[in-house]
Amino acid sequence: MRLALGRTEFCFEKITSPGYTKDGEAYFSHLHSDQYSQFLYFLSHSLWNRSENKPICDKLIFLNKMMNGMFYSYKVELPNIFLFGHPVGSVLGKAKYADFLVVFQNVTINTAVDDAGSPAPVLGKGLFLGAGAMILGNKTVGDRVSVGAGAAVYNAEIPDDHLVFRDRTGELRIQHRTKGECTAQQFFNVPIG
Questions:
Q1: Domains of the chain in sequence order
Q2: Sign of torsion over alpha carbons 38, 50, 10, 78
Q3: pLDDT at position 120, please?
Q4: CA angle (119, 85, 156) in 5-degree steps
Q5: Kind of pairing, strands 21-22 and 25-26?
Q6: What's the whole-model pTM score?
Q7: Which of 4, 35, 54, 173 could bridge across to 43 with cysteines, CB 3.0–4.6 Å?
């Protein structure tokens, strides 16, 4: 429990969203469902790494699914610094995740990983996933990438500093970011780099 709380504090002290800090210190409330979902990940993952106590870890994941409608495995290595922003309906599959991940509602990361050892996607630092965003397949998504609401990346490499979005006609667009900082940066108080 102490390890999970320490990991939670380390993560939360870097988040700029209201309610994650109080008087300059990391703040955790079990009544804040986004925070609690993150804590349940840290707790289940920490327990799995220390004891591989599958029954307890499964119960923690089921609790999160019941309370938040979100699924991730305690075996998945989520980054040390990430934010779940109203992640109802999100499914985070096996992938190589990096710090400064932002996940909103109905996000899907569903990979080609199977027991035969197919590769998982590599997701870069500062990845922002808007409502309904999907990453399917096993290709690399670069650093400081934003996948907008309803946009799907299907088995495609996305270079660093790019936006993936649907335009007004519904066409999928991939273009270089023109703003100075990536979308994920607004959620963290340390530079993504």
A1: 1-74 (no CATH), 76-179 (2.160.10.10)
A2: negative
A3: 86
A4: 30
A5: antiparallel
A6: 0.93
A7: 4
